[in-house]
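Morning run. Coffee first, then this:
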Amino acid sequence: MELRQLKYFVRLAETLNFSTAAKGLFITQSTLSHQILQLENELQQPLFLRNSHEVTLTEAGQILLPHAKETLRSADNCLLRLEELKNLTGGELNIGVTFSFASIMAETVTQFLRKYPRVKMNVTQSTMAELITQLENHEFDFVLAFKPSVSNPKIESRTLFHHRLAAIVNERHAIANRDTITLEELQRYDLALTRRGTQARNAFDHAIADADYHYRIKVEMNTVYLLFRLVRESNYVTVLSESTVVYENGLKAIPITDTDTEDKRMIGCIHLLKNAYEKKSTKEFIRMLSESISINI
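And here it is:
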């Protein structure tokens, strides 16, 4: 059973006249008759009663008609949705993002939705491990996160940027006007850090692994929003990627000189399933993100 045959059947059922239906379909009457006969042979029952005076629907034809119309509507809707995806006038974009990456993508989200308001965007914030598992289950189109320490054979990670770790403080803090700071100097301040296992914390722990430093870690949390609020309202220092606070008012990022080496920099990546279809909205978002201010600080 072909969509074309269903289209011919519906037109004939609506007109009950082979000549009229054929003209409306821009085909010959013999072509219409042949296609209807093929459909009846496939279904093994007549759809029309024909005589020299009239054409009428059989009981089978009456049953098929509403389903044929619905099938054709569904096919048209499918083509419309595909056309919308191609032109970015519809569809959905599903993004997974880690806590530290949320601020980095904020500008791009706003720009993308302003340019493509009919694309629905679904953003989920969670840990790297949880997001990658969901990506493997095809729940996301892509994940925004820093590069993991262990590669995943199912995931393609495209590098967006290499950023330094930085001490994040409020604008009133004693070190707010510094150009840089060292890991050794950070021992003098009360620290509020992300929990162990988060990418920023892993990078910090890696940077100090071989040093005999003793830090005053007073707070640990896995919610960046609360961490930023705490730093804004106190003299606590946190350590994150320098790009994390690009759009955060009242906060300053002071690069940590000891972490300005290739093995200690935080590598921001877009993670996609290998060999998976990459739709147009994904490509466009990635392009816009790559050009954003936060990526090119």
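The chain has a mean pLDDT of 89. Good start to the day.
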